[in-house]
Amino acid sequence: MNWDWNYTGDIIPDLLDGLRYTVIATLAGYVIAVLLGLVWAMLRRTPNVVVSQTVRWVTEFIRSTPLIPQLYFVYYVLPSWGLTIGSLTAGIITLGIHYSTYTAEVYRAGISDIPRGQWEACTALNLPRSRVWLDVILPQAIRRVIPTLGNYLIAMFKDSPLLLAINVTELLMSAYQVGSRSLRFLEPITLVGLLFIVVSVISSILVRRLERRYATN
């Protein structure tokens, strides 16, 4: 089958529309993952053993479960309990919660790298716990883990095609719909692959620059 350039030009608007939903799902899910992951990490360090161990088992369960069953659960099972969520919203929430368990480990590693002496100094100064976290610990920990968090943004982007399982018209779903109408899949699927490669490579370059920057500062 030869490449049809006229057909390629015709399908690009549909693919760009699918890319828009892919970007929305990725960025919105990433915001949830970054914020919720920090909450998980801080709860893991709470003196309350019940809370810390509960959070530990919950995050381990989510992290150890494939993303597809989680998508199905949120989109297909929750409505039977009276909680109906749109496909895009369900995808964003599931991506965010799933990846929050990974970012939690990133934060936990960053917090653990803070020298013990800084914790002791905060105790000696009798600083409120909120100030210890907001003014001393978190600014240093987050700065150290920014490059690793960037890697998870790339991973989330590459996992976004799984959202087609719950009927989100993201990039791959758009390519499938275009191909189904014309019975030509060469151009749409190839373009999807190229778009993922381009975005992933550019993102990887940016993450490497972040790594070099924060390694030298």
Keywords:
217 residues, MetI-like fold, elongated
Q: Name the helix and strand elements from N-terminus to C-terminus, one letter apiece.
A: HHHHHHHH
Strand percentage lies at under 5%
Choose one word for the global shape.
elongated
What distance separates the N and C termini? 53 Å
Helix segment tally: 8
How is the main sheet built? none
Would you report the number of β strands? 0
Structural class: mainly alpha
> What is the helix content?
over 70%
Rg over C-alpha atoms, rounded to the nearest angstrom: 21 Å
If classified by CATH, what would the architecture of the domain at 20-169 be?
A: Orthogonal Bundle
Uncertain segments are none
The top-level CATH class of the domain at 20-169 is Mainly Alpha
CATH superfamily of the domain at 20-169: MetI-like
Give the CATH topology of the domain at 20-169. MetI-like fold
Nearest-integer average pLDDT: 89
Description of the molecule:
- By secondary structure, this protein is mainly α.
- It has a domain at 20-169: MetI-like fold (Orthogonal Bundle).
- 81% of the residues lie in helices and 0% in strands.
- The chain contains 8 helices and no strands.
- The longest helix is centred in the N-terminal third of the chain and has 40 residues, at 5-44.
- It is elongated, with a radius of gyration of 21 Å.
- The termini are far apart.
- The model has no long low-confidence stretch (mean pLDDT 89).
